[in-house]
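User: Hey, my collaborator sent me this sequence without any context and asked if I could get a structure. I don't really work with proteins. Can you help?
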Amino acid sequence: MSKTIIFTGGHHNSALVVAQKLRTQGHKIIWVGHKFTMRGDKQISAEYQEVTGSGIPFYELKTGKFYRVTNPLEFLKIILGFIQSFAYLLSTKPDLIVSFGGYLSVPVVIAGWLLRIPAVTHEQTVTAGWANRAITPFVKKIFLTHQSSLKNYPQHKSFVTGLPIRPSLLEQTTYKRPKPPLIYITCGKQGSTVINKALFPLIPKLVEKYKVVHQTGAHTITSDQDKARRVKASLPKNLRTRYKHQPYFFAQDAVRYLKTAHLVIARAGAHTTYELLLLNKRSLLIPIPWVSHHEQDKNAQLLKRLGTGIVLQEKDLSPDNLEVAINQALKLKLKKPVSTIRTDATDQIISHLAPYLNDSLSSPSSR
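Assistant: No problem. I've predicted the 3D structure and written it out in structure-token form, which is a compact way to encode the shape of the chain:
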């Protein structure tokens, strides 16, 4: 029988893979997430565009961040986030909540627990994210990307499943290798102004030898798209086609660029680093320094140890240092792909969800 499932959290790429698979099984999916790229900006988020583009109803949640809260206004936003979460849950009456970490998941999962709605969560990183630690007492199961994460969570409810991978990334589609070789810059859903600032002066030199595809982000305050247009316009006419920029590349384009790139320059989020390992790609990683528990730095160091990545810390970022790091990364000699990367996470997770979607367990008394 069809059930109603709410998805929420901070890692929409992984979550959407699972949501779409459940939808094909006849379940009703509802999404609670970010409508805009960041606070104070009116640029529609990639999450909102991809989720609504899939035909999934989207509910925007406005709540405060729980990590290291000192601003009284942030506390007020947290309270409002809980009120909004209760309202969404009472109106949609979901049978299950599926979280993929991130601070949005906290009020939704806790409100669900108070309403006796079962919840599960997925941990993407090699550490334990703050949000997932906070909701651990309130979820039935915790799905982990990495075996090493087992020590961070209660053993009786933790399961190593790997990370859900976009099906198009696993398909054996053959793409034509770009000539000249491709450098792909992707820095998360919002892009990275600090990386863009160091990168823009290097574009004229890079396009002499490479094709450069650059995900700039779409923040209306920093206007990095406008800066990218000016950089492209300043290039010699015969080289302008070697520089392509967009605020965000959606799944089909992103997969093609990842698969055909000679080098990927990126932050070191869990999803990005997992896909880089899966595809055995050369990478230059610039971790976000302020994320909790230094999780991005740990992700980046893992790729460095495996010999597929160069790490450049943001505090050392400058056009000169970035150029040196790019040249070092381009010289990396790739070894055999990591054989322990799991690709069946979506099916594993859905198999664990079966008891909560079974009619005999869906009544409030059984939750």
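In plain terms: The chain has two domains: 4-165+343-366, 169-330. You can pass these tokens on to your collaborator as they are.
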